[in-house]
Amino acid sequence: MIPSIIWKYVEKRYVFFPTPDVEFTPGDVGIDYQEVFFPTEAGPQLHGWYIPGASDFTWLWFHGNGGNIGHRVTELALLHQRLGISVLIFDYQGFGKSEGVPSEQGTYQDARAALSYLQQQYGLDSDNIVYFGHSLGTAIALELAASHNPAGLVLVSPFASVSDMSRLVFPLLPSDWLVRNKYNSLAHIPKARCPVLILHGEQDETVPIAQARKLFDYAKPPKRFQSLPRAAHNDTFEQGGEDYWGALREFLALLGETSVGLGGA
């Protein structure tokens, strides 16, 4: 009984927390977009938005564990306006208008479906696609990058693994068998053969910045770590300021210069 209660607590706090109603769209903030639906290999249809931009790169956006894509409209608008990039953002199974029920393996299938749709529908290859993940989305992006290398990886507020996080909450319990969803980013990040940018708020009380630094240590170069002194877990794009937006601009510029690496931090 006790392990079951602990498992449910960890799952609710750190894994899936979807909402069904998509209350806002990019159109609400004056951005042209295309509403898209595409199938997963297992059958459920996923819902998302494609926003065209002027950059050579397209962001494939993996959001966090709560809400749906409608809750990312403000961040999406700033990203589009400041960087001018194209974006495909979508909901995992069970989030927003996407069919199905969320699970770890399901989110990995969702990521592959989104990548396939982006490549086939818009004629893109890996040299033009950047994986952009936040929180839980960083683990999904990393699992995809381990087998489908992008041009680059941007990881915002990442964690090492769900087991690692559960050990912080329940240090005296055998957390490895208390959690069903592992999301083991430490196992996946060494397999990513592309430039990596990690951004993390120093005020993050949900995922301590030490988790991001641990993940950074496992990443292959070229890589960069950018701490955000005023930011917490969900306000990096608002409180990060020039540390955040400047790092993203520099990352995109360096991706466009194949002879230049990012260097360590």
In short:
Helix content is 35%, strand content 19%. With 265 residues, it is of the alpha/beta class. Helix 3 packs across helix 4.
Description:
- With 265 residues, the protein is α/β, with parallel strands linked by helices.
- Helices cover 35% and strands 19% of the residues.
- The chain has a single domain (2-17, 34-204, 214-255), classed as 3-Layer(aba) Sandwich (Rossmann fold).
- The protein contains 9 helices and 10 strands.
- The strands form 2 sheets. The protein has an 8-stranded mixed β-sheet, with helices on both faces. A two-stranded parallel sheet has the order 1-5.
- Helix 3 crosses helix 4 (136-145).
- The longest helix is centred in the middle third of the chain and has 19 residues, at 104-122.
- It is globular.
- The relative contact order is 0.13.
- Residues 258-265 have low confidence and may be disordered.
- Summarize the helix and strand pattern as letters: HEEEEEHEHEHEHHEHEHH
Give me the CATH superfamily: Alpha/Beta hydrolase fold, catalytic domain
Q: What is the spatial order of strands in the main beta sheet?
A: 2-3-6-4-7-8-9-10
Rg result: 17 Å
- The share of residues in extended strands comes to 15-25%
CATH topology name: Rossmann fold
Summed over residues and divided by their number, the pLDDT gives a mean of 90
The geometry reads as: globular
Main sheet overview: 8 strands, mixed
What is the CATH class designation? Alpha Beta
